[in-house]
Amino acid sequence: MSRTVVVGSGISGLTVAALLAKAGRQVLVLEKKPLAGGALHRFKRRKIPFDVGFHYTGNLGPGDITRRLWRYLGVEPLVAITPFPRDGHDHLQIHGRAQPVQASFSYPRLTAHLKEQFPAEQGAIDRYFAVIQEICAQIPFYNLDLPLTPFLQGMASRHLPLAAFLDSLTSNQELQAVFALPTFLYGVPVSRARLDVHAMVAHSYYMGAYTVAGGGQAIVDAHLKILARYGAEVRTSAAVEAIVDDGRRVSGVLVDGEFIAGTDLIFTGHPTAMIDLVNRDFFRPAYTSRLRELENTMSMYALFGRLPAGAAQEALQWRNYYSLPPGPAEFHDFMGCSPAQRQLMMSSPGARDSQSLSAGGEGVILLAPAHWQEMARFHDSTPRNRSAAYGAFKEEVAARMIDHAARTWGAAYGAMEPLAVGTPLTFRDELSAPQGSCYGAMYCLGQYNPGVRTRLPGLWLSGQSTLMTGVVGAALGALVTAGEMTGLEGLWEEVRQCP
User: How much is the pLDDT for 100?
Assistant: First the structure.
């Protein structure tokens, strides 16, 4: 039996591997890090577990496509999915606005609240939500009766600017900030954002938010169990040095000098990282240049901290706090701009997870947009040779983030103890993310992300940069990749009809 090699064990790699193994293929997953899971894995500081890339998500309600996909694979019974309760919401503190906005994970509740907060903007509010729902009614992932192939073939033609749409709705900068909030979840500034991408991401959360007991690590562990059940193999600490071909198609990979045969290879990392692994004769210069010149999503500063036990558990349990400047989100330089321009998110996934609460302390995560250029003086460093200046820089980042949280949400947050601080360099080095990008290549105006197929037969792409961002986007991208290999509409039918 021929073997399929999957490079990378993030959610996309694990999903595509499980789909193909379920279909009867011999599958090998290669992960260069010591642990599988990519951005989904957890780490601990002072015995407190922290999630790197999974804080909350949409699209896991009964009948939602990601839930159906997990049920199809056998993952669903292995994870405990909990919806945010009715009073759960994103708490939006817009700079200069006295009253915060409660962004409920429900179209009716969010619409009603916004009309109370912005009574002069009822027409704009109705129009915004109507357009989002009109767009998503044409997207198969939200309307399972639709075929998948025509939608995928037409994606390149739907580049409508989000900024122009928001300007056509209202000149109210505070309301624009509310409408633009989902850009934080896919890492594209409003000036570059596409309306269709915005709708796909926003709709998922407007329909409901969910958490998983055990966080991202539980999702990883469930997929690994399914892979073992189907007979797939996962190797960690296995960095791919080259993708090998026989002159006609993929024949395998080199890992630590060892040749591993495989007639199909799925690369789930950033597309630019694939270029240097392949015999370049297979790719036209234009294709190579296109991949190398892909613009990436924003990066983040991430502070993983601790508050005294119970200090903010009730406030943070089913709320995510955002501090936002008015107007469209442009992701200013956090370290260089004034406090009035900065964005900050505060979340405590552990406050809604009994596995984390048992640690006896309360973990809090602060996230702020970051630009790769802010790290220019440290670009050439590695985790083994970081300078004292880099350590001081991280301390300054932590201090500014904690100060921002305290000034915005109360002095109690000034007592936060930083346990770990991540920068764009952390995302680059730990997650192999070019320029520290959190969500891969941007889905933005004027940019055409690569598709699943490549010019080299047997070489396929998957991951955040091929369809959509985030856990949901990467998992659905994996479904598309597996479908292109085995029969797209047939697989789509099986998944969407899964009882």
Answer: 96
Q: What is the CATH number of domain 3-81+213-294+448-496?
A: 3.50.50.60
Q: Domain segments of the chain: what residues?
A: 3-81+213-294+448-496, 85-89+103-208, 298-438
Q: Is residue 314 scored above 80 in pLDDT?
A: no
The encoded tokens of residue 288 equal 């190579």
Lowest pLDDT segment from 191-195, 261-265, 383-387:
383-387
Q: Is the dihedral of CA 450, 456, 458, 459 positive or negative?
A: negative
In whole angstroms, how far apart are CA 434 and each of 88, 184, 387, 428, 441?
34, 19, 21, 6, 9
Q: Measured between alpha carbons, how far is 8 from 21 in angstroms, rounded to an integer?
A: 16
Give the angle subtended at the CA of 293 by the CAs of 14 and 5, to the nearest 5°: 25
Q: How confident is the model at residue 341 (pLDDT cuts 50, 70, 90)?
A: confident
Q: Which residue has the tokens 């999503």?
A: 297
pLDDT band per the 50, 70, 90 thresholds, residue 361: low
d(CA 212, CA 58): 11
Q: At what angle do helices 488-496 and 65-73 cross, to 10 degrees?
A: 100
On whether the CB atoms of residues 249 and 457 are closer than 8 A, the answer is: yes
DSSP H helical ranges for 137-242? 149-153, 162-169, 173-180, 195-206, 215-229
Helices marked H in 347-387: 354-357
What are the CA-CA distances from residue 221 to residues 227, 236, 357 (Å)? 10, 14, 20
CA dist 350 and 305 (Å) reads: 12
Tokens of 262: 């495989």
Taking the C-alpha atoms of residue 354 and residue 204, their distance in angstroms, rounded to an integer, is 25
Residue type, 254: L
Separation between Cα atoms, residue 417 and residue 145, nearest integer Å: 50
According to DSSP, the β-strands at 26-30 and 42-45 are unpaired
Strand, coil or helix: what is 471? Answer: helix
